[in-house]
Amino acid sequence: MTEILMPKATAVWLVDNTSLTFDQIAGFCGLHPLEVKGIADGDVAVGVRGADPISNGQLTREEIEKAEANSDYQMTVVKPKYADLHSPSKRRGPRYTPLSRRQNRPDAIAWLVRNHPELSDAQISKLIGTTKTTIGAVRERTHWNSANIKPTDPVSLGLCTQIDLDEQVKKASARRRKLEEENPEMLADTLKAQEDLKTEQDDDFRTNDDIDLETLFGGSKD
Description:
By secondary structure, the protein is an all-alpha fold.
């Protein structure tokens, strides 16, 4: 139900100028029936000047007469003429990203994959306006620019709002809990930094070199 302006003042006017029941007035004004009874008894809203909902454009005389004739009828607030103009329109299709920010998408994808592994590719795609192919390439480290990708918060990059991000994370929270229960080691390091990977690769190469020298020459390296 649409909230009305000055509910107590409106209730005062309805108590003084109509034969509506306390329940009807309470339902229209968003008050408790006992509070409306207190207004009628003079114990509540003392000194409050009544506000005419008809002159305010929130209620019609016909609506009041209909309610007075039927004690079970609940009045409805008159919908403002331009109410639809103030309601935000739902976005359809993929999010548009300015050309100047599209180059930052891989950085944002890497950040989301690392910090929110519970998000599906479809959610990431909708959030920052990218494709599942690009997401997969970043996730699998097959992106053509993988060496230069630096995980960065998409909010700071201007690719999405914090509200949109929080909404998608909230939707996927149940999926994250399931992932943490089934694969705790996977969440420990979903996307390692490029420097860490390079260090690990160097260590592997040194280990392999040691094994190869031992095997080929059958003795100490000296």
